[in-house]
Amino acid sequence: MPVETENRSDSDFDQREHGDSRFISQLTRNTFAMVLAGGRGSRLMQLTDYRAKPAVFFAGKFRIIDFTLSNCVNSGIRRIGVATQYKAHSLIQHIQRGWSFLDGRFDEFVQLMPAQQQIDEVQWYQGTADAVYQNMHLLRRYHPDYVLLLSGDHIYKMDYGAMLAFHVKRQADMTVACIDVPIEEAKGFGVMGVDERDRVVSFSEKPANPAPMPGHPDRALASMGIYIFNTKFLFEQLIRDAAEPRSSRDFGKDIIPHIVPRYRVCAHRFVDSCVGMTDDVPYWRDVGTIDAYWEANMELTKVTPELNMYDKDWPIWTYQEQLPPAKFVFDDDKRRGEAIDSLVSGGCIISGSTVRRSLLFSNVKVHSWATVEDSVILPHVDIGRHAVLKRCVVDKNCRIPEGLVVGVDPAEDRRRFHVSEKGVTLITPEMLGQGEFPVAP
């Protein structure tokens, strides 16, 4: 139990939480955020063959991890560690280039924590809890009061300061951020059972029959993989778990099930800290499959998407290469360079071709008489003349041959490329016979 919460009423905290921003700023200054970014994301298929899921491109100019890191910086949390493991070269390069602006003179940083076999010479990170356990000596160096544990592979905007204030107000040992989901989707989450004060009374990791929320039989309260711990309590639990030979070293499978019946664990509702909600619906996307990744990107081509990337009060930060503006050339009736309901990044040239409802990342070239519809085109792609791409995700560095048609004949597409359950075609350089020297970043 945090010392500063003793003998204080809820009204005291309500006044400080809502009437004095310095209360939350003090909490964020005393917090160390650790982003667990070591996973491959195998459901993204060949898109993660050469990069970790947090390093996958998103929304025209960002990487997935940029959203979590931006939430930290915008919330006032400026001491951040990023634990990496699987094929981390492009992720490390991105963080070094795009996240070095924090000032170490003020004890602000984004620090890389690659798996280094720190416990013994044969053991990499064995699970999410083990990734934190192996870096405890680094966490101790900064003496944080609270440790915020985050996943680096979801798209959302959240004020972690509001969650910290909730954690302290409820005198919790641990707080879990939760979102309510349709009960049929809850099987893929850790599901929380709570009382009327949002104290967690039960927890099931990916249950076959999820418990519904009280009064909402069609909804369940699911963990977002965002945790706040009192630092001393976290260390105690990690040391205890490391000594348990049967543990899989995972928060969802081991740590949380152990502490829920024994300690004070609270559930924080995402709706109370989500930034920029549309129609009171919090935006959160798990882009862990090709279909989910494609759909989340396609949403951004709408006139008013649910994710507001133009919010100056809560910007998404990233590494931005210095590129010329996008260029559209030719204006003949049968050869016009145009993009409709699309996002087109710097360095792109739309040369006498048509782009509809698509996202073009940086340095994409679309040559004459080509058509791109409902597609996500990653950086440095060259699309040849008369090519047709529909409902595609095209990986970085692909050179689309002249006249190639994709998204019209699914049977033909499956012979050459990966086609998802919902008919989205993934194209990589290797599938085009161009992968002799793959480029991960």
From TrEMBL:
It comes from the Bacteria. One of its GO terms (molecular function) is glucose-1-phosphate adenylyltransferase activity. Keywords: ATP-binding, Carbohydrate metabolism, Glycogen biosynthesis, Glycogen metabolism, Nucleotide-binding, Nucleotidyltransferase, Transferase. Pathway: Glycan biosynthesis; glycogen biosynthesis. Residues 33-302 form the Nucleotidyl transferase domain. Belongs to the bacterial/plant glucose-1-phosphate adenylyltransferase family. Involved in the biosynthesis of ADP-glucose, a building block required for the elongation reactions to produce glycogen. Catalyzes the reaction between ATP and alpha-D-glucose 1-phosphate (G1P) to produce pyrophosphate and ADP-Glc. This is Glucose-1-phosphate adenylyltransferase. It comes from Rhodocyclus tenuis (Rhodospirillum tenue). The lineage of its organism: Bacteria, Pseudomonadati, Pseudomonadota, Betaproteobacteria, Rhodocyclales.
